[in-house]
UniProtKB/TrEMBL annotation:
Monomer. Belongs to the DNA polymerase type-Y family. This is DNA polymerase IV. It comes from Psychrilyobacter piezotolerans. Keywords: Cytoplasm, DNA damage, DNA repair, DNA replication, DNA-binding, DNA-directed DNA polymerase, Magnesium, Metal-binding, Mutator protein, Nucleotidyltransferase, Transferase. Binds 2 magnesium ions per subunit. Mg(2+) binds at residues 12, 102. One of its GO terms (molecular function) is DNA-directed DNA polymerase activity. CDD domains: PolY_Pol_IV_kappa. It comes from the Bacteria. It is found in: Cytoplasm.
Length: 377
């Protein structure tokens, strides 16, 4: 029987921008290095000892660390190094989701079987990055994206942490503060704090219904699941094909609205067939219109969840056509399906979405009634 357990790695480059600057100018080593013009984009660990952090204003940073080395952002250089790192990771597998210039998720389920331990693989991964770029990274390996991300944050810089299953997740999180739970920001922390919920162990004692009543349906459910290590998101594989499109040029200009609609529908169906054939899912539909005077416009709409559902795409098409001038004569029509992925998870129809909304409204109403009853009691 095939083992369906996933093994996910999350890599996070250590103080990425600052580390590149120190690599390129070794005289900066050991000094507090801050990258940013008006706001800090990143700073090295020497600078963090002074209380500096990303998103802090440089003005405040200079007050706390007046003798720091303050550098401008060099986006082109950082992008080049990021591309180099991505190419190294893609040598291992294409099951990669790059979520920023300096971090990404890698599905190593099939690869890890060839190594004696997580430790051996993580060390080889780090050494490969260091050898080729001169930079260090922190590694987390878990059973899903949530555990991998939390693990990579645990020992920085240059550390490795492993969370193999739900039991290890519970041990890892038990005595931590609630701000470690993804989705718990300052406001949520204050709300939970008023209920004396300050540690993950406190949250774990709460039922799903109790957390929903405190935080609302969606956020309550998310905090309930994340505090318990539940995360079913897949690594969204980056596709080499960025979009699929079709266009038609007309010898006689189009003027009839119904005919234009039917032509767009035909183009959509043709493009959709290619989408399904190549086993992709899409989040973005773009329409292209070129008028007789050569003026060309594009209009796009995106959805949060990638899909292959033709009915959802038809609905997007109808919405986009409301935004386009169809009065002037048209020479070209085009459709593009972009933001492609191989992720098949959570593909919902409009009927599904409406059903979920209805169920949640009913549950929210029930929660309000229960809260009122509790107040009366």
């Amino acid at each position: 029987m095939k083992n369906s357990k996933k093994v996910i790695l999350h890599y996070d480059m250590d103080a990425f921008y600052a580390s590149i600057e120190i690599r390129d100018n070794p005289s900066l080593a050991g000094k507090p290095v801050i990258v940013g013009t008006s706001v800090i984009t990143t700073c090295n660990y020497e600078a963090r000892k002074y209380g500096l952090h990303s998103a802090m204003s440089v003005t405040k940073a200079r007050m706390l660390c007046p003798y720091g080395i303050y550098l401008k952002v060099d986006k082109e250089k950082y992008s080049r190094v990021s591309k180099q790192i991505k190419n190294l990771v893609l040598r291992l597998t294409n099951k990669v989701e790059f979520i920023a210039l300096d971090e990404g998720f890698v599905d190593i389920t099939d690869i890890i079987k060839n190594y004696p331990s997580y430790e051996v693989f993580a060390l080889k991964f780090q050494r490969g990055i260091l050898k080729n770029t001169g930079l260090t990274c922190s590694i987390g390996i878990g059973y899903n994206k949530l555990s991998a991300k939390l693990a990579s944050d645990a020992k920085k810089p240059g550390g490795t942490t492993f969370i193999r299953d739900l039991d290890e997740f519970a041990d890892f999180m038990w005595d931590k503060g609630i701000k470690l739970i993804p989705g718990v920001g300052k406001k949520t922390q204050e709300i939970l704090g008023r209920k004396n919920l300050v540690r993950v162990s406190d949250v774990l004692k709460m039922s799903l219904q109790e957390l929903r009543s405190i935080l609302g349906y969606n956020r309550g459910e998310m905090i309930y699941e994340y505090s318990r290590g539940i995360d079913n998101r897949k690594v969204s594989v980056e596709s080499k094909t960025h979009s699929i499109s079709n266009e038609r040029t007309y010898s006689a200009p189009l003027e009839d609205r119904e005919f234009i609609w039917s032509e767009f529908l035909s183009l959509l169906e043709k493009t959709h067939k290619r989408l399904k054939y190549q086993k992709f899912h899409t989040k973005t539909l773009t329409l292209k219109v070129r008028y007789l005077d050569r003026k060309t416009i594009t209009r796009s709409k995106s959805i949060n969840i990638s899909t292959q559902n033709i009915e959802i795409l038809k609905r997007l098409l109808a919405e986009l056509l409301e935004e386009i001038n169809l009065e002037d004569k048209i020479k070209l029509l085009g459709i593009n399906l972009g933001n492609l992925s191989e992720n098949k998870e959570y593909q919902l129809s409009f009927k599904d979405v409406e059903g979920i909304k209805k169920e949640r409204k009913i549950q929210e109403l029930k929660d309000k009634i229960n809260n009122l009853k509790n107040l009366k009691d």
